[in-house]
Amino acid sequence: MTERRGRSSAAALFSLLFVLVASLMGSATAQAAPARFVPAGEISPTVGFDPAGVLEWRLDQVFINQPIFVRVDPALPGLTDFSLNNWCNCAINWFNNTTQVGGVAFPGPLDTGPIRTGSGDVSAWTDIPGGWTIVRGNGHWWVP
Description:
The strands form 2 sheets. The protein has a 5-stranded antiparallel beta sheet, with no helix packed on it. Helix content is about 20%, strand content about 40%. The protein has helices spanning about 1-25, 50-55; strands at about 40-50, 65-70, 80-85, 90-95, 100-105, 115, 120-125, 130-135, 140-144.
């Protein structure tokens, strides 16, 4: 009888420890899938001169000839992501022709994440704030 009670106590203790460890470690939780941005278009190259490149000793970035790539995520409607090959002191002036809302994005060396442009027909032009823009970049894309 005492042997059976000992086995039952050991099994109960093991079960209790298992439940305790499982609760402390946590169980698998549902997480959102990472954003899967797909190419939606391109803003033509912005050509110009950035005097900040001289002042900050970024001599390779004084003369700018930079296209800007546009990506959207069909699973996250209304968001636009801009990416560059090289750092550019460019201002992206965007306008959603469907919702009549506009804004400015500054894609720099750090990933700023997607911009909420809203769903619809979006157009953009770029310039170099504080510099001389010789050729403005232009672009047009559809945001789901």
